[in-house]
Known about the structure:
The chain is mainly α and 378 residues long.
Amino acid sequence: MSLFKLRGPLSKSQSLILAIVGFVLLIALWWGLAESLAVKRPVGINYTTHLPSTLGNDSVKIDRDSLLRADSIALANATEFEKIYPILPTPLQAFESYTTLLNEEDQKGWNIVDHTLASVWLNVKGYFWAIFISVCFGFLIGLIPMFRGLLSKQVNALRYLPLTALTGLFMIWFGIDDSMKIAFLAFGIIVYLLPVVVQRIDEVKDVYLKTVFTLGASNWHTIRTVYIPSVMSKLIDDIRVLTAISWTYIIIVEYINSSGGGIGALIFRKQRFNEPEQLFALLIIIIIIGFIQDLIFVFLDRRLFSFKYRKTVTPGINESRYGIYIILGSVMLFLILAAVIPGFAAALSTVLGLIVVTCLLLIGFGEFKIFNYSRKHA
């Protein structure tokens, strides 16, 4: 099988080998760049790397030429040097910094695990509101001609808004707490997802619509049996791609109020204190989260819209599907009630946890049946 054939398929072994080779090449390139940008610093000498500022009101006058001359002499007389990586750390330094991040706690007593979970939960809430609003308004605009005429142009124009320039408005409207962060993250997805929902509605094939019309289906029955399955089965791929945008905005919203914690707040602190190895370690965490998020969306696609991949219903698929539906519905209900009745959030979270654990067991049972069926019919 040629590896250079246009759109040629790859076998599982080829995909695995090429993925490993690509990862090794990436690490080698990273390490090579880090070594090329490394500098040598004298050991045991007070070597001044940053000149003091003359802009202050300090009565002591600074002779920069003398400082530079003294550093040059110290550098010329040095006999021992150490290699430092001020611009780009090596992969080993980035991975070793996880020990520091795990042991380091802020004023709230949070370490890297707590900050990561806070950012993930913040993004999940942003995902929910973005998807909920986009799907509802998208179907309204895509299906009702009056709303299409009224809103379609404005919706398309939203994509050109410079979102980072709107942070001030969101602070005025929602404050600087989590409500502002969630609203900004959701809006950052809505401006791109909403036009896609309308586009997917337009792509529904007329043959399906004519078939249900011939069978005497009502408008609601047409929406439920044709539009929703057809649109959502394609939209889940768009959601998987577009929800990644929120991780680019997490730095902005958590920088505005860094006291709330999160990976974005940690990245801002590491930038201020010039700790590039820990900064890269945090970026790697975001990449890993994104990779896991993609796997989750792929799993949801294969279970909720299995008709895209199989012509028959596999034993166990219904158990897995019901468990997913209950989890998604429970999270949706929790977020809505928590927004309407904030005082009951703690009690609702306990109930939500029990529901999620129960449904995960149901999904596990369904996956076990699917695995046994696939093994028997392999």
